[in-house]
Amino acid sequence: MNNQMEAILTQLKETSGQPVCAYLYDLDHLRAHVSGVVSQLPERCEMYYAMKANSERPILEELAPLVRGFEVASAGEVKKARQVDGQIPIIFGGPGKTDTELVEAIRAGVKLIHVESMHELMRLEHLAGQLNAMVSILLRINLAGPFPDAATLHMAGRPTQFGINEREVPEIMKLLARCKHVRLEGFHFHSISNHLHESNHISLLRIYVQKAKQWADEYGLEITRLNVGGGIGVNYQTLEEQFDWSLFVSLLAEFVEREVPENWKLMFECGRFLTASCGYYVTEVLDLKENHGERYAVVRGGTHHFRLPSSWQHNHPFEIVPVEQWAYPFARKEWEAVDVTVVGQLCTPKDVMARKVPVSRIRIGDWIAFQYTGAYSWSISHHDFLSHPHPAHVWVRPSVNEWSVTGKVGEAWTS
Ligand SMILES: *Cc1c(COP(=O)(O)O)cnc(C)c1O
């Protein structure tokens, strides 16, 4: 967090008369980061944004001109994409698409549908037939693995609800051969998430390419593209050591040149890696207390705004922003050189965002700024549990000294 962001939050606090509680997004950082990522991609590689990571409108507006398109997983996300850009390519995946969603996707002109089961393929052929449409698809395959990874979430290589069991490929090829309204463009693999190892990620792509080549040969397929998923990670434990994108793309360039058939494109659909770093969740320390040997900082808000740390059972990284103002006529409580557990306002012992983290000083009234909260943070949280107010969402452009707010600090909860 920089001085400008602090000044904005101070102003919000003064106008609302409420403790600070806000998501802050640095749109300049987002633009610089994502343009850097996209511009380094080698030929025949494309970047889509997996919008479930953060589908707030200003984020989508910032990203639309930078990425090749949006990856969506519901009709609601198709609508969000179309509201931001009537033309942007949309690719549509997800394990439980309804008939209505498939029809809406066809009508919205999505570029590719990622088919995740045999039944879904039959339904899509049926629905596309009724609309007299031709639909381009990728088959999402759940490979048996094992994978050369060091990731924290697995969508394949073990039992999960995603994609088509690799053992069913022969059967699905027979079905495809009879389809008249569905055209197979290639395969989709999104097997892991939060992967932090550059060369292992290339090894993973190698497995995908080899599998696809094998099926293309075996079934005489004319494939044009492989979706190699997202899953590039963020190192929440050591912020200074992030996935080295420059190293990765240099390995990728060599890999594409040597191992990917000339007329194939590789599509990436990243979420976390694109938006995590632009966001902060900043909240004010309401109380400090010690219970049975553990020290707690109780902050405004909590995991109903920011579920990521409790979902992943990790200590989310934060910095303490010292605030000098003190409104009361009595002494301010403070601790020095202690291990502190940061909790929110919810009445559940699971409302923990970081546990026993050493801090040099913390006072009631200081702010805690959680970092890397631009992805899977607000978007995955259960906002109305306990009916506390929502945080403000502050969109900052430091370079031109501009900012705007959506949502209000301290606004009472309304249905
Ligand atoms: C969530 C998801 C992504 C994005 O994953 P990240 O780990 O955020 O990059 C990509 N593809 C599919 C199919 C997904 O479900």
Automatic annotation (TrEMBL):
Modified residues (N6-(pyridoxal phosphate)lysine): K52
Record domain Orn/DAP/Arg decarboxylase 2 N-terminal: where: 28-276
Required cofactor names: pyridoxal 5'-phosphate
A GO biological process held by the record: lysine biosynthetic process via diaminopimelate
Orn/DAP/Arg decarboxylase 2 C-terminal domain location: 26-374
Keyword NAD attributed: no
Any Pfam family hit: Orn_Arg_deC_N
Protein name: Diaminopimelate decarboxylase
InterPro entries for this protein: Ala_racemase/Decarboxylase_C, De-COase2_C, De-COase2_CS, De-COase2_N, Orn/DAP/Arg_de-COase, Orn_de-COase, PLP-binding_barrel
Alphabetic keyword roster: Pyridoxal phosphate
UniProt GO molecular function: diaminopimelate decarboxylase activity
Domain of life, per lineage: Bacteria
Active site: C347
Gene3D superfamilies: Alanine racemase, Lyase, Ornithine Decarboxylase, Chain A, domain 1
Record-linked PANTHER family: DIAMINOPIMELATE DECARBOXYLASE (PTHR43727), GROUP IV DECARBOXYLASE (PTHR43727:SF2)
